[in-house]
Amino acid sequence: MGRKLFCEINPLFYDISVFKERTKRNIKNKLDNKVLAKDKDSNELPNIVKSHTSIILRKLHNVDMELQVNKKTNLQIAASKINGLIIHPGEIFSFWYLVGEPTRRKGYKEGLVISRHGLTHDVGGGLCQLANMIHYLVLNSPLEDVELHHHSDALFPDERRRVPFGTGTSVFYNYLDYRFKNNTDNDVQLLLWVDDDVLCGELRSEKEFPYRYKLVEENHHFKKEGNKYYRVSQVYKITIDKKTNKEINKELILDNHSEVMYDYSLIPESEIRND
To answer: 84 Cβ partners below 8 Å, 6+ apart?
Structure first.
């Protein structure tokens, strides 16, 4: 068994570690001269770059459904902080700059969170789904990620998955942020809202972009290494010229090798490779 990190020895040390990281981020933000997007407009920009929906209430193995119900409230609050945001050319989107600290006073509830390679619950839990939504919209555009923290483990079996595995991002107030830059000459806009039990998102633009994009996952399988199973695949971003409908670029954006953290009996046998 490996050595424990300092912050894992005692909960107090963990709190000290979190405080240290948040302080470092606050200092960095004050010294940083980057322009963060903050303007909002209730008028929608005319061109839809990408739209997407994701189910909020998912039945996850060994997870209390109440945490999923609470997540819906958390998503509604956080989405309202971003909905209508305009990101001007050269500006940077920061998830936590806009959402702020999720606290009970602001109406946030206990939800599921990923912590130190495990699952627990905390106030504001479930906001990763909102960050995942935004990241997926950005992946289907020419915009540029500037801060991204991938989930390193496969925490759940697939439950009506509609996007390639591994394309999510971790966020944890405030030092694990999700940020992207508008590196185009075009205003873009984020629309985010909750409709019944579905999280909805749109990325819009002032002028139409000449390309469209799609993500494909290839070589997906599970592999046993020693006594552990890993989920393996490659995710590519394909650029397509709208005028000719021809593929002009295929870029590897993610090479998944993620430890399976759930019950191995839930891995489909047909997806296990022994080579």
So the answer is: 40, 41, 42, 189, 190, 191
The whole domain housing 4 covers 1-33
pLDDT of residue 221: 96
Which tokens sit at 54? 């994701």
Residue 264 lies in a domain: no
pTM of the model: 0.91
4 pLDDT higher than 80:
no
Quickly tell me which residue has 């006594």 as its tokens. 227
In the structure encoding, which two tokens stand for residue 139, read together? 């992946």
Q: Is the dihedral of CA 91, 92, 95, 101 positive or negative?
A: negative
The tokens describing 156, both together, are 């759940």
Question: What region, left, alpha or beta, does residue 241 occupy, with left being phi > 0 and alpha being psi -120 to 50 degrees?
Answer: beta
What pLDDT is recorded for position 6? 47
Mean pLDDT over residues 48-66, rounded? 86
CA distance 156 to 38: 35
Band of residue 118 on the pLDDT scale cut at 50, 70, 90: low
Reading the block at residue 93, the tokens are 């989107």
Residues in the chain: 275
Among 184, 208, 232, residue at a domain's last position: 208
Q: Which of 181, 208, 235 is the last residue of a domain?
A: 208
Total domains present in the chain: 2
The verdict on 87 and 20 lying in the same domain is no
